[in-house]
Design brief:
The protein is of the alpha+beta class and 184 residues long. The protein is built from four helices and eight strands, in the order ββααβββαβαββ. Strands 1-2-3-4-5-6-8-7 form an eight-stranded mixed β-sheet, with helices on one face. It starts with 10 loop residues before the first strand and ends in a 5-residue tail after the last strand.
């Protein structure tokens, strides 16, 4: 199930609208979210909820009281088609100061600068409208596209973890960081 996040602001770029996902996005998500190639560098296949996106909007335990999340989860809507073609998250937010970035996009749209455009928009929002001081991301060293997105958005390569565990696989992965002061 998608986390119930804080208020998700609508953000816009030349080609994209970043917005909260809704159950009406299920069919768009079904087209790409469950494809195994989306998870090549995650060390796992698509989950049941990713293969059946309608499950993302159903609370399996509705009576459990949960703490409010400080995370942001945006659907990436392509203006031209009005379809949700990706997702971008700022998650594991600690004390409203540090957050991790993650993104995924429909494979048919890889290498078109969409993730870079969306992430740059989110970076601008985070550092102008929140108290966060640091964003960080990680990418398998073999995932040239994801490493390129982080670099193109101004993140600094801070190091490489060798034989570490990233999500659910053991691999070498890069750690990228971006501070508020880096973009002044």
């Amino acid at each position: 199930m998608l986390k119930k996040c804080r208020y998700i602001p609508l953000l816009e770029t030349d080609r994209l609208i970043l917005r909260e996902l809704t159950p009406e996005d299920t069919e768009d998500l079904r087209e790409w979210l469950g494809l195994d190639e989306v998870y090549t560098y995650w060390g796992r296949s698509a989950s049941k909820g990713e293969k059946n996106p309608e499950l993302l909007f159903v609370d399996p335990r509705p009576n459990v009281k949960r703490k409010p999340s400080h995370d942001f989860i945006w659907g990436i809507e392509e203006k031209a088609s009005h379809k949700v073609i990706g997702m971008l998250e700022v998650f594991d937010v600690e004390n409203d100061r540090i957050g991790m970035v993650g993104y995924r996009i429909a494979p048919r749209l890889w290498n078109q600068g969409i993730c870079t455009e969306a992430l740059q928009c989110v970076v601008d929002f985070i550092f102008s409208e929140t108290a966060m001081d640091r964003l960080q991301g990680s990418a398998d060293v073999r995932n040239h596209g994801s490493n390129k997105v982080l670099k193109n958005c101004g993140f600094t390569l801070e190091g490489t973890i060798r034989h570490g565990k990233m999500v659910s696989q053991y691999c070498d992965y890069n750690i990228w960081g971006l501070l508020r002061e880096d973009i002044r």
